Structures are given as structure tokens and as C-alpha cells.
């Protein structure tokens, strides 16, 4: 007997937060009274559905899911997959009408994305739900099904529904047609899109990794088996989201998934996967150092539903990494040597000394770990300003509570580097882990605290992860912080203090910003391939002479706001005369940004300045996009269905270099099949012309789309609407 959920005056339907529960779906949904002569067998009936779900078959091959030890169909979102439906007779599109239904959870609703009806259409839109017939033979049809690039991650149930005049006939519940849908780092529209195939191989498909431990003077390493493709691991990972009670409609969002997973990986406050123990007594459990991988831990938790004993930071991080890679979120395990555990997130570790100069352990709450492991997950951050997507810190080790639970992240690595710790989630805590100053304090006789000394270089000396494609160590300290002791590093710290210390209400630490100097900067509009300048302006509105130590950082970012790398660093000292404004130009040469430029030619600038006389910080940031020249598409002659017409594509190379191995693509549904052409070279400033003959098949308003691709230049597009006349 199914127990009915308690009624709740606020919502008509209970929360839907279990992928495991199902609802009853009627096989015959009548529209009204059914006449006596009605026989469902007279109508189109589904005899069989072939999911092409074997590892060697098309779906798992194309979706990079052939390694999963799981008999069901597993696909990645935003990419089409094939299924075949066998009917009891040939399908007649004129009279027969059927559609697909994907359902997840117990209370499927269309507006929540948990009930997805898919009607047939002639053309699939990339990244949107749809289905089209690709092949008909005898009683069978082949469908290409496209899932949404933002759809829920989980296990869906599939039904085929057939319309009859008296009601809808559905296939019966058949678990063999269940379809798992995962994140898709190969799909540009997915929030976890990663543009480098070697990195996808490592961060999504590699099921073995390396954990660096020991300490800064004695680095040790060990292998860890993630095992994300092993039997039942995918189901165990989906179960974790049920355990965390993440509502199904939120499971398409990697930010939400990471946040709830960082809580459920540890057993504090939610009976999560692993119980931590740091006291060297591991009664009734496995010592953390004994685990060699994640599989045993996840499978034990999946079957017992009780926390597995015991873990320490690398165990939490190893299991978290399995979870992320299994669902398709690119992830890597990070080790931070000399990691600060800042109890009150004031960006300094307060070590209290007694009269003899020894640390007073009763008063001192902060600590430095020899090393600490956490994870980075790769995703866009549409909830933050541009520039903060890319690697995000997530940490499943229970250290401090965040919004009332033991969890941490996702926090943008780029925001941590530049000290912009105001952006969610938990950036001040992570910033402190890699950057805190150690402050030694002594209680004076009158009760005040006297700062005895400050150590600014001890914490976060080295941050590492496994190399891509090899087993070596890759240092990524520079992703988190500027060179120790450099101007930029102090600027970033003071920026962080400006944002982080706001939380403190104590009067004497309250922060007074510099109000009598203003800073602004402008980026000159520029076409890709040309030099341009950034102009920084200071307005000194006081009667003081000031000098400002200024740092400009230019970063190449993905169109989603994810930083790829820094291409420009420029520091200078600015003299600011009283009551006057001063401008400073920084020239950005095309040679500085071209080699690393990404698809959409977006650049992102940070400018940070410290007024040396007052120690106050000014910080601003801006994103800019270089203009990419477009392709021009033209048509010649009349455009009539069934008659030959001519299409030309033109492009002028804007760069000061020859473009090599250029691929042009042209497509237009109903007008022409996708055509490709390779050009060996397009010299600088020269124009390429490609003419194509085609016979449009369908009348009406159609779109021609062209793209050009080569290593030096991407995201060059052109499109043209064409009206095809009836013959």
C-alpha cells in the first residue's frame, strides 16, 4: 500500500525530489465514453522499441557513454540519439499520430521539466527537445531524438503514446527502455561545456587519478580509483541526489548539484556518505588511509543507506570526484599544501600567544593543515558577473557550516585569485584556505590585543593536481593566487579584505574605503586582429598628492564568462596630483591575445590600484568582446522549390596572418544538405568566394547558415533568410 504524502496547504503537489519513485501511467486514457465497437487493436500499436543501447552501438559510442557498465541507454543532454519503433503495421503519417513521453519522478509536470511530451517535427533544433523520423522500413521507423541542453540529469521512463479518436493508447511500463540523461561537456550549449578533448578525456572519462599528500617539504602521491563507470555506481550517484532531497527540477543545474553534493558527501547533519574521523581511532570502521577508491564506499552507502566509516579529506574528495565525473561534470582533485582552516573567515589565522610566547591552544581556534584536498568542477556561472565561470571549488570535507550545513562551494577560482570574495558560495573561506596571513597576537595586561608578528607567505604555498593525460604533478598555484609577495598578490588580498571584512561588526575593524579618489577605465572598441588600448583614469578629488600602484590584468574568457588564461599583466605607478584627473593608456597588441584567443573573442580586464599613502584599494573589472568579421551569404537567380539555384559564401581574412586549413560549412534545412569545403590557405586581407548549386525541396521561409573554422579563427558565422517560392 503506497502511503499518501501528507497534504500541505501551500502546494497542490508534494515536493518531487526522488528519481526513484514512479507514478502510474494509464495505458488507455479515454477522452469520454468509449463506444462498444472500439477495439484498440484496430489502431497503430507499438510492438517493440529498440534503444540501440549496447556499448558498441551508435548511441553509447557517440555520447561517450560506452564505458558505463549498465545495460540501459545512457546519453548526454543536448545531443541527438537514435531509437527504432516497430509497429503492428506500416506507419502512415497522414492518419496516424503518435508521440514520445519522457517522465521522471513520481509527480511528472511539464512546467517542471519532469514530464516531456515530444511531438515529431521535420527538423531538430540543437539543444531543444524534439524528434524526427530518419528512416522508414516496413513496419518500423527510426527516430532521431534530441534532448534539451538544460534538461534534468537522471533516469527517465519512456512511453510511446498513440492518438485514437476515443483516447490515448500508451505502451506499458517497460524498464528496458529507461534512459539515463547526463551532463554533456562535448555540447557547446551545456553549462559544463569544456573545449579541449584531452581535458575531457582526463576530467570526465578517466576513471583513475592521483592524490597528492604529505607536506610541502615531502610530497607524496597515491593512486585512487574513481570507478565512475562501474556497475551500479551511476544509480548510486543518482541516489545521492535523492538523499540530499534536491528537487528534480533543479537537477539540470550543475551549481545546485555541486552545492547539495558537497553536503551529502559527508555524514554531518544529513547522514551522508562518509563519516569523517581525525582522531586516529577508527573503531568499527575502515581507517581512511586503507581505501583505494570510491566504488566500495559508494556501493556500501547505496545498499546500507548509512554513513560509511571513515574518511579524511582525500577520501571525501575522491568520492566527490567520482560523483561529478559519473554525472558528466568535468572534475579534478586538488591538493593545497599548508592549508588554512580559518574559523571565522576573517582572512587571517589568529594564533594567540601566552606570556612566554607559546601558542595558547585554548584561545586559538584557527589551524593550518599540512595539506587539504578538495575538488574543482568545471561549469559556467550565470549567477555571477562575467569572468567567474570555469573551475569552481567544491569541498565535501566537513570543516565549517555554510548556510547552516556542512558544505562548501561552488566558489569561483578566478574570483578567489582576484580577491572578489563577495560572490557566492563560500569564497571567503576558500580564499582564507590559500591566502590567509598568520597573525600572532598577544593579550596585553590591559586586555587589548597586540599584534606581535605577521607571516604572509606560509599558507597555500603550493596547490597541485594531476597532469592531463599523464601521472605527473601539475602546479596550479597561479590559478588561485598571484606570485607570493608581488604587488598584485597584496592588492588581491586587500580587495578580499574590503569584501570579506564587511561581515565583521566590531567597530575597530570596520573598513573605511578611499572616497577622495575615483578610478574608471575604458576599453577601445576593436576588430579582431588589431591593436587597441585600455585607458585608465584617476580623479583625485582631494588636496593631497597620491601615488597609486596599479595593476591591469587582461584575461581571455569563454563566451560563457569562463576564464582561459591571462594574456596581459601590466603594473605601473601613477602620480595623482591634487584636484585633477590623470589618464594612463595601456596598449594591447594583437600578438598578445591572438595566439590564445577563444571562440567568441571575449576579453576580461581587472584593474586594481592601491593608494600608497592610505593603503586603500580601488578595484574594477570589465568584459569586452572583439568584433569578429561575419561571413556574407548571397543567392543568385530565382528561388523556387524543385529548381536549381546558386548560393555564394564570401569571407575576407581580417588577420595579419595567413589562415590555414579552413573549413567552411553551409546548411539550410529544406534548401540544401549540409555541405563542407576545405581551403588550404586564405592569405591576409584576401577574400574567399565559394559558390554552391542546390535544389531547394520545400517552399516557405528558410534559413541558410554558414560557419568558418580554423585554428586561428573560430565562431565566424553568417546567415541569410531566403523565401523559397512554390513551383
UniProtKB/TrEMBL annotation:
UniProt region (Disordered), positions on chain: 1-24
Residues annotated as domain Transglutaminase-like: 305-398
Binding partners and assembly: Tetramer of two A chains (F13A1) and two B (F13B) chains.
Intracellular or extracellular location(s): Cytoplasm; Secreted
Ranges annotated as spanning the membrane: none
Protein name in UniProt: Coagulation factor XIII A chain
SMART domains: TGc
Organism, scientific name: Thinocorus orbignyianus
GO MF terms, alphabetically ordered: metal ion binding; protein-glutamine gamma-glutamyltransferase activity
Gene name of the encoded protein: F13a1
Cellular component terms per the entry's GO annotation: cytoplasm; extracellular region
Amino acid at each position: 500500500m503506497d502511503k499518501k504524502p501528507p497534504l500541505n496547504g501551500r502546494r497542490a503537489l508534494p515536493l518531487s525530489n526522488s528519481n526513484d519513485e514512479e507514478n502510474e501511467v494509464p495505458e488507455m486514457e479515454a477522452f469520454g465514453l468509449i463506444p462498444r465497437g472500439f477495439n484498440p487493436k484496430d489502431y497503430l500499436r507499438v510492438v517493440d522499441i529498440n534503444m540501440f543501447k549496447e556499448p558498441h552501438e551508435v548511441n553509447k559510442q557517440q555520447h561517450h557513454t560506452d564505458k558505463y557498465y549498465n545495460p540501459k541507454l545512457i546519453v548526454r543532454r543536448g545531443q541527438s540519439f537514435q531509437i527504432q519503433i516497430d509497429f503492428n503495421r506500416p506507419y502512415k503519417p497522414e492518419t496516424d499520430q503518435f508521440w514520445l513521453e519522457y517522465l521522471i519522478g513520481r509527480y511528472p509536470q511539464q512546467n517542471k521539466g519532469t514530464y516531456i511530451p515530444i511531438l515529431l517535427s521535420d527538423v531538430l533544433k540543437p539543444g531543444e527537445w524534439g524528434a524526427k523520423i530518419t528512416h522508414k522500413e516496413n513496419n518500423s521507423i527510426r527516430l532521431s531524438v534530441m534532448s534539451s541542453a538544460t534538461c534534468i540529469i537522471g533516469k527517465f521512463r519512456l512511453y510511446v503514446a498513440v492518438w485514437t479518436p476515443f483516447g490515448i493508447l500508451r505502451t506499458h511500463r517497460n524498464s528496458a527502455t529507461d534512459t539515463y540523461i547526463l551532463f554533456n561537456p562535448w555540447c557547446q550549449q551545456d553549462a559544463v561545456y569544456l573545449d579541449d578533448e584531452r581535458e575531457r578525456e582526463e576530467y570526465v572519462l578517466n576513471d583513475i587519478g592521483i592524490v597528492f599528500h604529505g607536506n610541502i617539504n615531502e610530497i607524496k602521491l597515491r593512486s585512487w580509483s574513481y570507478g565512475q563507470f562501474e556497475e551500479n555506481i551511476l544509480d548510486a550517484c543518482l541516489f545521492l541526489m535523492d538523499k540530499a532531497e534536491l528537487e528534480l527540477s533543479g537537477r539540470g543545474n550543475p551549481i545546485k548539484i555541486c552545492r547539495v553534493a558537497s553536503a551529502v558527501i559527508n555524514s554531518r547533519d544529513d547522514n551522508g556518505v562518509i563519516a569523517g574521523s581525525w582522531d586516529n581511532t577508527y573503531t568499527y570502521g575502515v581507517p581512511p588511509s586503507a581505501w583505494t577508491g570510491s566504488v566500495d564506499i559508494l556501493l556500501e552507502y547505496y545498499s546500507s543507506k548509512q554513513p560509511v566509516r571513515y574518511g579524511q579529506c582525500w577520501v571525501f574528495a575522491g568520492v566527490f570526484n567520482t560523483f561529478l565525473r559519473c554525472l558528466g561534470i568535468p572534475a579534478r582533485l586538488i591538493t593545497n599544501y599548508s592549508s588554512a582552516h580559518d574559523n571565522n573567515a576573517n582572512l587571517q589565522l589568529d594564533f594567540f600567544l601566552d606570556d612566554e610566547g607559546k601558542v595558547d591552544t585554548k584561545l586559538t581556534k584557527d589551524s593550518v593543515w599540512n595539506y587539504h584536498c578538495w575538488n574543482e568542477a568545471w561549469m559556467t556561472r550565470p549567477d555571477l558577473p562575467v569572468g567567474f565561470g570555469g573551475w569552481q571549488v567544491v569541498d565535501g570535507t566537513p570543516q565549517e557550516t555554510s548556510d547552516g550545513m556542512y558544505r562548501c562551494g561552488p566558489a569561483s577560482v578566478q574570483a578567489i585569485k582576484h580577491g572578489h570574495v563577495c560572490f557566492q558560495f563560500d569564497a571567503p573561506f576558500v580564499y582564507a584556505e590559500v591566502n590567509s596571513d598568520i597573525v600572532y597576537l598577544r593579550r596585553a595586561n590591559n586586555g587589548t590585543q597586540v599584534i606581535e608578528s605577521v607571516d604572509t607567505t606560509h599558507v597555500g604555498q603550493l596547490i597541485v593536481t594531476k597532469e592531463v593525460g599523464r601521472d605527473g604533478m601539475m602546479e596550479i598555484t597561479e590559478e588561485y593566487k598571484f606570485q607570493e609577495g608581488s604587488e598584485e598578490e597584496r592588492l588581491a588580498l586587500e580587495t578580499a579584505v574590503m569584501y570579506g571584512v564587511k561581515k565583521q561588526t566590531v567597530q575597530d575593524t570596520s573598513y573605511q574605503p578611499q572616497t577622495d579618489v575615483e578610478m574608471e577605465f575604458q576599453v577601445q572598441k576593436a576588430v579582431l586582429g588589431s591593436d587597441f588600448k585600455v585607458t585608465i583614469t584617476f580623479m583625485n578629488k582631494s588636496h593631497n598628492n597620491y601615488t597609486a600602484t596599479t595593476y591591469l590584468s587582461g584575461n581571455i574568457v569563454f563566451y560563457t564568462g569562463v576564464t582561459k588564461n591571462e594574456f596581459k599583466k601590466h603594473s605601473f605607478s601613477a602620480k595623482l596630483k591634487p584636484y585633477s584627473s590623470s589618464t594612463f593608456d595601456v596598449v594591447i597588441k594583437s600578438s598578445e591575445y591572438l595566439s590564445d584567443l577563444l571562440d567568441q573573442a571575449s576579453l576580461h580586464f581587472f584593474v586594481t590600484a592601491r593608494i600608497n599613502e592610505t593603503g586603500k584599494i580601488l578595484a574594477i573589472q570589465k568584459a569586452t568582446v572583439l568584433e569578429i568579421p561575419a561571413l556574407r551569404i548571397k543567392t543568385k537567380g530565382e528561388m523556387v522549390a524543385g529548381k536549381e539555384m546558386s548560393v555564394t559564401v564570401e569571407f575576407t581574412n581580417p588577420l595579419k596572418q595567413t589562415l590555414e586549413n579552413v573549413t567552411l560549412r553551409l546548411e539550410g534545412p529544406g534548401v540544401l544538405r549540409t555541405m563542407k569545403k576545405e581551403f588550404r590557405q586564405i592569405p591576409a586581407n584576401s577574400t574567399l568566394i565559394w559558390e554552391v548549386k542546390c535544389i531547394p525541396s520545400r517552399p516557405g521561409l528558410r534559413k541558410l547558415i554558414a560557419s568558418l573554422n580554423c585554428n586561428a579563427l573560430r565562431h565566424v558565422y553568417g546567415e541569410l533568410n531566403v523565401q523559397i517560392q512554390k513551383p
